[in-house]
Design a protein that fits this description.
The complex is a heterodimer. Chain A is mostly helical. Chain A has 6 helices and no strands. The longest helix of chain A is centred in the middle third of the chain and has 12 residues. Chain A starts with a helix and ends in a 7-residue tail after the last helix. Chain B is an alpha/beta fold. In chain B, β5, α9 and β6 form a beta-alpha-beta unit. Chain B is built from 12 helices and 9 strands. A 5-stranded parallel beta sheet of chain B has the order 3-4-5-6-9. Chain B has a two-stranded antiparallel sheet with strand order 1-2. In chain B, α1 packs across α11 and α4 packs parallel to α6. The longest helix of chain B has 28 residues. The chains are: A mainly alpha, B alpha/beta.
């Protein structure tokens, strides 16, 4: 069932820019047109391109924000999310936590 | 004359003439108008739905460029769990299943959830649940929700500590039934907040209150109060997905933000969910198994279109088994499922599914 929806109507996740548009809905409560336009502006592509895997596969690797295929050396997991937070200008909870952990002096937990 | 092959609301194939198809689409939409006091579909929208169902292709989809964001209730349990009617029981861990949804199924977001998928049983093992979320956050890119149901029924005897309103109401003990529901609501709210705060502490992107108000208005109130607290005190994105199209008045007198909760339809539900501070709303429209899929889809999108119109937050409509025009069958046929999916986007004007 999930796959049918993904094929019929879904943005495509990290094949395209689906995760990025989702982040704007989650962080700023943006409705879909606004969220798509915001991400398109940040990526310097058209709204139409956001769901185009041909465009987005290459752009994601160029921006190093995580790609769908297993490419050694590209940003993964939190590495990619740090870059996504900076690219979109939004706060991602797990990135904030990682920054706090990474920058705090080594010693007993407060 | 050629007939159009489609389905009934229970999933079985049915043949309709073109006139029957048009009549079912109109009747389904009118049923939503009558019950929910929402505007009818325009003729152009009914024509679009006619073409959608008359199209003989097995699979259909939205127009390129109209794709929407997917969130998912039931979480990665779909892959590793087994509850007879859902879950394929694969020998996978939750974090593996999460990665499959991200990298193989290309979902835009995903959830971690407990196999029981209710907040109450999560409470004693919340550290394990938070660890599952934490591991997904470390290794994946897409937003990570934790999802569970308020599942009010678990708070009444014999499953919980409070008198069971279903036992009290038939005896005419209405005041006692109401008192019990308010006690249940308080315990339920506390559990939801407790679990969500643990997820916020590990950096989860969001929390999903799924199948909200399954036991009616007092459960809805408990969820709205939890949402209000969490939206003030955490950075979680909060999704509220409903259990049914109308909030049952099991209590009958509870209100939120000055609005009586019993009897609310999706376009009214979204306004109290917004007031509580939620980020996403998932309306439900129930499928009638005795009516055709076109009737059900037209009815569902009529309700949801109005909900989308009045909303200020993103609308992620529920289009799973037995809701949103999808047949009430554990393996929903892809022909009708994709039609319900496309119609919810193109006519229901949702921001996600």
């Amino acid at each position: 069932m999930s796959i049918s929806h993904a094929l019929a109507s879904g943005m495509g996740g990290i094949r395209t820019a689906g995760d990025l548009v989702a982040r704007m809905q989650l962080s700023k409560k943006m409705r879909l047109p606004e969220a798509k336009q915001y991400v398109a502006d940040k990526l310097k592509v058209s709204v139409f391109d956001l769901s185009d895997s041909t465009v987005m596969r290459r752009l994601r690797e160029e921006l190093d924000i995580g790609v769908i295929t297993a490419v050694p050396g590209t940003a993964r997991g939190l590495e990619a999310k740090v870059r996504i937070a900076d690219l979109l200008g939004v706060e991602i909870n797990s990135v904030r936590r990682w920054r706090q952990k990474a920058s705090s002096p080594v010693g007993p937990q407060s | 004359m050629n007939t159009i092959t489609t389905r009934m609301g229970d999933g079985y194939t049915v043949e309709l003439t073109a006139d029957e198809l048009r009549a079912d689409l109109l009747a389904g939409s009118q049923d939503a108008v009558r019950r929910g006091k929402v505007p009818p579909l325009e003729q152009s929208e009914l024509d679009w739905l006619f073409d959608l169902f008359a199209n003989p292709s097995r699979i259909v989809g939205v127009e390129r460029g109209h794709e929407v964001v997917l969130t998912k209730d039931g979480s990665v349990n779909t892959l590793y769990s087994s509850q007879i009617s859902s879950g394929v029981g694969l020998p996978l861990g939750r974090e593996q299943a999460f990665r499959i949804f991200e990298r193989a199924f290309c979902f835009d977001t995903m959830e971690i959830g407990h196999p029981d998928y209710s907040f109450k049983p999560v409470k004693p093992l919340v550290s394990l649940e938070a660890t599952g979320v934490e591991q997904a956050l470390q290794s994946t890119l897409i937003p990570v929700f934790y999802g569970a149901m308020p599942n009010f029924g678990l708070y009444a005897r014999p499953d919980g500590p409070f008198p069971n309103p279903s036992d009290l109401l038939p005896k005419g003990e209405i005041a006692a039934a109401r008192d019990a529901q308010m006690e249940m609501a308080e315990a339920c709210r506390e559990d939801m907040v407790y679990v969500a705060e643990h997820m916020a502490a590990v950096g989860a992107d969001g929390i999903n209150f799924d199948t909200t108000a399954s036991a009616g208005d007092a459960e809805f109130l408990a969820t709205l109060q939890a949402v209000e607290h969490l939206s003030r005190t955490t950075d979680l994105a909060i999704e509220v997905g409903m259990a049914a199209e109308m909030v049952l008045g099991f209590h009958g007198e509870v209100s939120y933000a000055g609005q009586r909760l019993a009897g609310m339809w999706p376009h009214q539900q979204v306004k109290v969910v917004e007031a509580a501070g939620a980020h996403l709303f998932g309306p439900v429209v129930n499928t009638n198994t005795r009516m055709s899929a076109p009737w059900n889809v037209a009815r569902a999108v009529t309700f949801v279109k109005e909900c989308s119109r009045v909303a200020t937050i993103p609308i992620h409509a529920n289009v799973g088994m037995g809701v949103g025009g999808v047949p009430m069958f554990e393996v929903p046929p892809s022909d009708v499922l994709t039609r319900a999916s496309a119609a919810m986007v193109e006519i229901g004007r949702v921001d996600g599914l």
